[in-house]
Amino acid sequence: MHRKTLIIAEAGVNHNGDRARALALVEAAARAGADAVKFQSFRADKLATAGAAKASYQQATTGTAQSQLEMLRALELSPDDEEQIAAACVASKITYMSTPFDADSATHLVRRVGVSTLKVGSGDLTNAPLLLHLARFGLPIILSTGMGTLAEVELALGVIAFGYLREATAWPTPADFANLLLDRATWTELRAKVTLLHCTTEYPADPQSINLRAMATLRDAFGLPVGFSDHSRGIHIASAAVALGATVVEKHLTLDRNLPGPDHRASIEPDEMAAMIAAIRDVEAALGDGRKVPAPEEIPNRVVARRSLVVLQPVRAGERFTEDNLGVKRPGGGIPPIEYWSYLGKVALRDYAANEALEP
């Protein structure tokens, strides 16, 4: 039985701060067949300073007149918004997820909204205090690794493991985190709870920047489940990621790519999301179990497509079979061609007409 990839429709901030649009994104994700729809939980004043610059892609999509902090303030969802959106997810039978960007937002998601998994964005791969806070809840964590190195991922895993396995201490040190990774039991805990997402943090990301093989590098380096947070244009690279072993695929969803806002242009619309999910499900089914055996549908075609030993010209009883009068032709089901040489020189036990199948 083929494994099922967790497909997350990343609504992110594509609601533009509008609860009604957020609810419409929930409905669109559910109709498209996504397993989960994910938003972002933050308080702008806790996320950025007034002097924080916008990324170049944000400047291209939202202009330069507004600061990053001002942009983020316009994209906030209130705690009440989040609870209403989560309730809509229950009604639509789709899992609600959100990426928390600060400790208070994370606590609200866990204690009030009741999320079952925490997602960490690539920007917080090195945010050790937040990682520790998230791990203290004991929930599964999906960790995006965009902009990161293997060394930074390892440091993050040390912090997360410490949060899972050690009592709160006032001043944990980098050595505490690193030493914990030397314990084999730590990796058992991490394998059970942490999934690493390969990601290219650019919106949209060009194909030559994707480096899908790095997903396998993460899996080989840490032995954890891996997935892909897809910022590429279109839908085809996500299917390739699944073929390469992604257990999670995350893709930005918008109701309209022409809407104002930082992420709409790098997102896909609902019909494209549905097409991507259908393609992924086909890839999952096509992967199979890896055993090289005939598919049940192939068995009847063996007789049609394979060959058997046949007499090429009339042969009388007592004549010998030779390279001139013995050959292989369709249909199969008779003496297999591998026996060709063992019949050369043998005496025919009865008369054969041309193209008649040889009998044992």
Would you write up a description of this structure?
The protein has helices at residues 19-32, 44-47, 56-62, 68-74, 79-92, 103-113, 128-136, 150-165, 174-180, 184-193, 213-222, 236-243, 270-287, 299-305, 340-343; strands at 6-12, 36-41, 95-100, 118-120, 141-144, 194-199, 226-230, 248-252, 308-311, 326-329. It is elongated. Helix 5 (79-92) packs across helix 6 and helix 8 (150-165) crosses helix 10 (184-193). The mean pLDDT is 95. Strands 3-2-1-8-7-6-5-4 form an eight-stranded parallel beta sheet. Strands 9-10 form a two-stranded antiparallel ribbon. The protein contains 15 helices and ten strands. The relative contact order is 0.12. The protein has two domains: 6-287, TIM Barrel, CATH 3.20.20; 296-343, no CATH class. With 360 residues, the chain is an alpha/beta fold. One of its GO terms (biological process) is carbohydrate biosynthetic process. This is N-acetylneuraminate synthase. Keywords: Transferase.
What is the total domain count? 2
What is the strand tally? 10
Radius of gyration: 30 Å
Series of H and E elements: EHEHHHHEHEHEHHHEHEHEHHEEH
Overall shape: elongated
Main beta sheet: strand number and arrangement? 8 strands, parallel
| Spatial arrangement of strands, main beta sheet | 3-2-1-8-7-6-5-4
Provide mean pLDDT, rounded: 95
Assigned CATH class of the largest domain: Alpha Beta
The CATH architecture of the largest domain can be given as Alpha-Beta Barrel
How many individual helices? Answer: 15
Q: Provide the structure class.
A: alpha/beta
Might you state the CATH topology name of the largest domain?
TIM Barrel
Distance between the termini: 40 Å
The CATH homologous superfamily name of the largest domain equals Aldolase class I
Flag low-confidence runs: none
What is the strand content?
5-15%
User: What percentage of residues falls in helices of 4 or more residues?
Assistant: 40-55%
